[in-house]
Design goal:
Shape: elongated
Largest sheet: 8 strands, antiparallel
Number of helices: 2
Helix content: under 10%
Number of domains: 3
Distance between the termini: 39 Å
Low-confidence stretches: 1-45
Number of strands: 45
Strand content: over 45%
Radius of gyration: 29 Å
Length: about 575
């Protein structure tokens, strides 16, 4: 991307000399390869809040990553690649638990380079792309937004573009209003909001500096805007709300730039101290009530940029190490305890609907989740006394996510439906050499009712019933100690140890294990009250994407040769 434009704050090659942008001098933008002392400025900013930092880099380029935006669902927007020739920007999004498998590439079709700069809570991402990757890094830029997998170019709202053209979208709110800028033929940045639904632009102007280069960088759901503008060979940040501009200038700084804002009016950005070879850069947050707070990534003090913030106050940005030769993305979360309380639901769950088939037989349509992945189950009708009436000729089979959908032919007459029977799902099949016990059942059939909710039941192999499981759990994350404490209170489960895990995915679509817990032990009455503490946990509890699962069996018998057994079946589950 072009590094000699004000837009290049999102594409700085850390450790390289920056070039003048509009009225902004090179010294105001330069980022030095090493940090120097900055005691004077940190004394002028507030000391709180404190943060816990974690570095996250896409290994597509271990030497250059930048994280630029974060949603309230903890999805992060960013890119890798410095933009130098042969190292093009490559956009991505990142989801918890922030592993290498959690990166999703996002590059504008046919582009040579892409940066994903912002995103909202509804899956819309914005950014810019280039069809070039030149040695001079003087490349064209075009804004875009992506929605439902489709990319849309946002053309410059100007008849006097720079050469090559430069236009970028840098932020978007949940109302699908984006902010960005273009560079005109005189080299000045002109900012706007862009209504994605209407395809219309509106100018963003700072009344006191109408002719200056102005870059709008972030927008919240109230329409408040963050950004910065060039003034007298430096730059100042701004926060615009209701048409009123507040200038942001960290005391003692030589330059201040605001890059993002959340719904609480918390603005984030970066400021520089000193000039020339003595210049260093720090991240900051600002609120009207709390003022400025300096943010330094511990490994990148003097070269920290904060680019995005969500409503929880989580920050994303980047810093440099190794003499400025390596740029790394970071997530910083406030160093406060995070608690999540959840209700555990009995599994399996879902519905079954009955109808008369073509041959006057009984058909059953299932929509069930929370089964053992890949499992097969016999289906039986019981009469009012609990005696078997008939067994389905077909099996209920779950997919790899523990879901069973579809219609099964019972193999017997529709007339069985009218008898005061109920349908029971058994734990396995006649062929699996395991004792079959009920795991879920409908209510008693009623003459005019054809759809029933399933109720899960816990019955031991010796026939002892503990009813329907129930429970609740609390998760407490301590970012300073890097611990996650999980307390489970449950009843209606069979006595003895039960495997429990935090998985990736949801109860509706089961995924792999993220954290294994020591088995939870139910007492002789089928009750559990236990706490398990995980250590070395660096990622906070996400807004979505995890679920807690309590299994019927213990950790030693839920798998055989790497595949789930009948004892794997979930008893209690909750999305986190």
């Amino acid at each position: 991307m072009r590094l000699d434009r004000l837009s290049s704050v999102f594409a700085w090659r850390l450790g390289a000399a920056a070039v003048a942008v509009g009225a902004l001098t090179a010294s105001a933008l330069a980022v030095l390869p090493s940090a120097s002392a900055s005691a004077g400025i940190t004394a002028t900013a507030n000391a709180k809040p404190k943060y816990v930092f974690a570095t996250y880099d896409n290994h597509g380029d271990k030497a250059f990553n930048q994280l630029l935006g974060i949603s309230n669902d903890d999805e992060i927007a960013g890119y890798f690649g410095s933009g130098a020739k042969g190292s093009p920007n490559q956009g991505y999004t990142l989801l918890p638990p922030y592993s290498q498998a959690s990166y999703t590439a996002e590059n504008y079709p046919g582009s040579r380079q892409t940066q994903v700069t912002g995103l909202n809570d509804d899956g819309v991402t914005v950014g810019f792309y280039s069809t070039q990757n030149t040695k001079s890094m003087n490349n064209n830029n075009y804004g875009f937004y992506e929605l439902d997998g489709l990319y849309h170019k946002v053309s410059d709202p100007t008849t006097d573009p720079a050469s090559p053209p430069v236009s970028q979208l840098l932020g978007v709110n949940d109302n699908d209003i984006a902010v960005g800028f273009y560079v005109n033929g005189q080299g000045f940045s002109r900012s706007y909001t862009y209504n994605i639904a209407a395809g219309t632009f509106s100018k963003v102007l700072e009344p006191g500096h109408a002719g200056a280069s102005l870059t709008a960088t972030g927008i919240n759901n109230a329409g408040d805007i963050s950004g910065f503008y060039a003034t007298n060979k430096t730059s100042e940040g701004f926060f615009e709300t209701g048409g009123t501009f507040t200038t942001l200038e960290v005391p003692g700084s030589s330059s201040t730039m605001a890059f993002g804002v959340n719904d609480h009016g918390e603005v984030v950005g970066a400021y520089t101290v000193g000039y020339g070879s003595n210049q260093v850069t720090h991240g900051f947050t600002w609120t009207k009530k709390g003022g400025y707070v300096t943010v330094n990534e511990p490994n990148g003090a003097g070269s920290t940029f904060v680019n995005g913030v969500n409503d929880k106050g989580d920050l994303v940005g980047f810093y440099s190490t190794n003499g400025g030769n390596v740029t790394k993305g970071f997530l910083a979360i406030p160093a406060v305890t995070q608690t999540r309380n959840i209700t555990l639901s009995p599994m399996p769950a879902g519905t079954v609907s009955f109808s008369e088939g073509d041959n006057s037989d009984l058909d059953a349509t299932f929509s069930v989740y929370g089964l053992t992945p890949g499992s097969a189950h016999s289906l039986v009708l019981l009469d009012a006394s609990g005696n078997p009436v008939a067994t389905f000729s077909t099996l209920l089979t779950a997919n790899a996510a523990g879901v069973a959908d579809g219609t099964l032919d019972s193999g017997f007459e529709f007339g069985y439906y009218s008898e005061s029977s109920r349908l029971v799902i058994l734990s396995g099949t006649n062929e699996d050499d395991q004792v079959q016990v009920p795991i879920a059942q409908t209510g008693t059939f009623q003459p005019t009712q054809f759809t029933y909710n399933l109720s899960s039941v816990e019955v031991t192999p010796n026939g002892t019933s503990y009813g329907t499981p129930s429970g609740a759990a609390s998760l407490v994350y301590n970012p300073v100690q890097k611990t996650l404490a999980i307390t489970v209170v449950a009843s209606g489960v069979s006595p003895g140890p039960h495997a429990a895990h935090i998985h990736v995915g949801s109860c509706l679509s089961q995924g792999g294990v993220l954290y294994m817990l020591k088995d939870l032990v139910a007492n002789s009455e089928g009750s559990i009250n236990a706490t398990r503490v995980l250590t070395g946990v660096t990622a906070p509890i996400p807004a979505s994407g995890w679920y807690l699962n309590l299994h019927q069996g213990n950790s030693g018998d839920i798998l055989a040769n790497g595949a789930p057994t009948v004892f794997f079946r979930p008893l209690l589950c909750s999305d986190i």
